[in-house]
Design goal:
This protein has 220 residues and is an alpha/beta fold. The protein has a single domain (2-219), classed as 4-Layer Sandwich (Metallo-beta-lactamase, Chain A). It is 28% helix and 25% strand. The protein has 7 helices and 15 strands. The chain has helices at residues 42-50, 67-70, 73-78, 87-93, 96-103, 173-184, 202-216, and strands at 2-4, 7-10, 22-25, 31-33, 59-61, 82-85, 115-116, 120-124, 127-133, 142-146, 151-155, 158-159, 162-163, 190-193, 199-200. Strands 1-2-3-4-5-6-7 form a 7-stranded mixed beta sheet. Strands 8-9-10-11-14-15 form a 6-stranded mixed beta sheet, with helices on one face. A two-stranded antiparallel sheet has the order 12-13. β1 and β2 (7-10) form a beta hairpin. The longest helix has 15 residues, at 202-216. The chain is globular and about 45 Å long.
Length: 220
């Protein structure tokens, strides 16, 4: 579904099967953020087709490497897409993160990365987004901030009334709190989390960050 000019959101709503929400950015190289599990990618394809997009995304961005966000990137790369992730997350994926995937009964696909998402500007054709390094849920986790739409593509940093878990290998409660404080200072009207519903409206976004700080920070 379209949220704003060039910004589309494809939520995963099934509660019995874990998968992530996906985000599409058009108006430059067709860019998909967090494609999800490979066997569940059909729901993204259906969403894209419903919005008139039938080509393979040119660029696939991963907020982090957990399999429920990354797995389908392998088939998209084979179809010609370029892949992007933070270099610290690539190192984590090739090291400690493999133990996590194995514990979950999964394996990371063999991937090569064409774009290293360093903190700073990410130009996608006519759009300029900000890459924000937000460790805590994983070491190289990133969020994407789109100032034009006051939108944060949040991955598993924050959710509606929740935060990303930190008990996986590579997680850190202290770093998660620092990362949340960093993004909470942005001018935001849309938070697009990796799981669950959108947080919409400046007042609701501020209330959500306040709730997170009050109830979750003491536990992190």
């Amino acid at each position: 579904m379209q949220l704003a000019q060039g910004l589309y959101f494809y939520p995963w709503t099934q509660t019995t099967v874990n998968n992530c929400n996906s985000v599409l950015i058009s108006g430059g190289p067709l860019t998909l953020v967090d494609p999800g599990h490979s066997q569940l990618y059909g729901h993204v394809e259906n969403g894209l087709a419903g919005d008139g997009f039938r080509d393979i995304p040119e660029l696939v961005v991963m907020t982090h490497c957990h399999p429920d966000h990354l797995e389908a990137a392998a088939q998209l790369q084979r179809a010609g897409a370029k892949l992007a992730m933070h270099p610290e997350e690539i190192a984590y994926m090739n090291g400690e993160g493999r133990a996590l995937a194995s514990a979950l009964g999964m394996n990371f696909p063999d991937l090569t990365f064409d774009v290293l998402l360093e903190e700073g500007e990410l130009t996608l054709g006519e759009h300029t987004l900000q890459v924000i390094h937000t460790p805590g849920h994983s070491p190289g986790h990133v969020c994407l901030y789109w100032p034009e739409h006051k939108a944060l593509i949040a991955g598993d940093l924050v959710f509606a009334q929740g935060v990303g878990r930190v008990d996986f290998p590579g997680g850190s409660g202290e770093l998660l709190k620092e990362s949340i404080k960093k993004v909470a200072a942005l001018d935001l009207e849309l938070v697009l989390p990796g799981h669950g519903p959108i947080v919409k409206g400046q007042e609701q976004v501020a209330k959500n960050f306040a709730l997170i700080e009050q109830f979750y920070f003491p536990m992190l």
